[in-house]
Design goal:
The chain is an alpha+beta fold. The protein contains eight helices and seven strands, in the order αβααβββααβααβαβ. The protein has a seven-stranded antiparallel β-sheet with strand order 1-4-3-2-5-7-6, sandwiched between helices. Helix 3 runs antiparallel to helix 7. The longest helix has 23 residues. It starts with a helix and ends with a strand.
C-alpha cells in the first residue's frame, strides 16, 4: 500500500515538473533596440575576424544578445527584408539561442522572432553540455555563455526552386554566419562556426523540427 502511494506521489511530482516546463514555453520578451552605428568599420571587422574558441568566464548582456540576433536575421525593411539576403525573399531559416549566462535572461533555449525583434522561450534549461556532446565534445560550446543555432527548413526553398533550392539555403546560412561573426567583432566578442555535430541529436535537444546547420558559440574575447 505504502509502495503504491509512493509511486503515485512520484508520478504527480513528475507531472508537475512537466506542466511547469510546458507553462514556460511560448513566453515572449521584447529585446532591446539595436544600434545602427559603431566605432568599428566593416573593413576593420573583416580584418580582425577570426575563429575564437576560448572565452572569458563572463556573461553576455541582453543588449549584446539583441545585437547578435539582429545581425543574424533582423528585419530591416517594412516589407520583411532582413540583414541577410534570401533567394526569392523566402527566408527559410530560424535562429535559436541556447543561453547559459546572459544578464537579465534565464538559461534556456529561445527562438528569435525577427518581425518584432523578440525572443520566444522554447525550453527552460541550460543545454550547453548536451549540445557539446552532440557536437562530438567540442567543449567551447559548453564554455561559451551562449550559442546561436541556425536551423533551416529546406522544403520551403525546394518548393519554389526545386533541387537548386538546397544551394540557396546553404548560401543564406553562410551569409548569416558571417553577419554574426562581424557583429561579434564590432562588440569585441569572439565566435566560431561549428558544422560538425549529430543533426538528430541537436534537433532532439532543442525540440525543433528544422535541420540544424550551424552552431555558433559566442563569448567575450580574452
Amino acid at each position: 500500500m505504502a509502495k503504491n502511494k509512493l509511486i503515485t506521489l512520484l508520478f504527480v511530482f513528475i507531472g508537475l515538473l512537466i506542466a511547469k516546463e510546458y507553462k514556460s514555453k511560448g513566453v515572449r520578451m521584447k529585446l532591446p533596440a539595436v544600434r545602427l552605428e559603431s566605432n568599428v568599420s566593416v573593413e576593420e571587422a573583416l580584418n580582425t575576424r577570426r575563429s575564437v574558441r576560448q572565452y572569458k568566464k563572463e556573461p553576455l548582456t541582453i543588449q549584446e544578445v539583441s545585437q547578435l540576433l539582429w545581425a543574424a536575421q533582423g528585419k530591416t525593411a517594412g516589407w520583411g527584408g532582413k540583414t541577410a539576403p534570401s533567394a526569392g525573399a523566402i527566408y527559410p531559416l530560424t535562429i535559436y539561442l541556447a543561453v547559459g549566462e546572459v544578464k537579465e535572461l534565464a538559461p534556456g533555449v529561445y527562438r528569435y522572432l525577427s518581425d518584432n525583434h523578440e525572443l520566444e522561450k522554447v525550453l527552460s534549461k541550460d543545454v550547453r553540455k548536451e549540445l557539446t556532446e552532440a557536437a562530438w565534445n567540442q567543449e567551447y560550446i559548453q564554455n561559451a555563455p551562449v550559442s546561436i543555432i541556425v536551423a533551416a527548413d529546406y522544403e520551403k526553398m525546394i518548393r519554389r526552386y526545386g533541387k537548386r533550392g538546397v544551394r540557396y539555403v546553404d548560401n543564406e546560412v553562410g551569409h548569416v554566419g558571417q553577419n554574426v561573426q562581424l557583429q561579434g567583432e564590432a562588440l569585441k566578442l569572439g565566435s566560431v562556426i561549428i558544422g560538425a555535430f549529430e543533426d538528430s541529436l541537436v534537433r532532439s535537444i532543442l525540440g525543433i523540427r528544422e535541420e540544424p546547420v550551424y552552431i555558433i558559440p559566442v563569448g567575450k574575447k580574452y
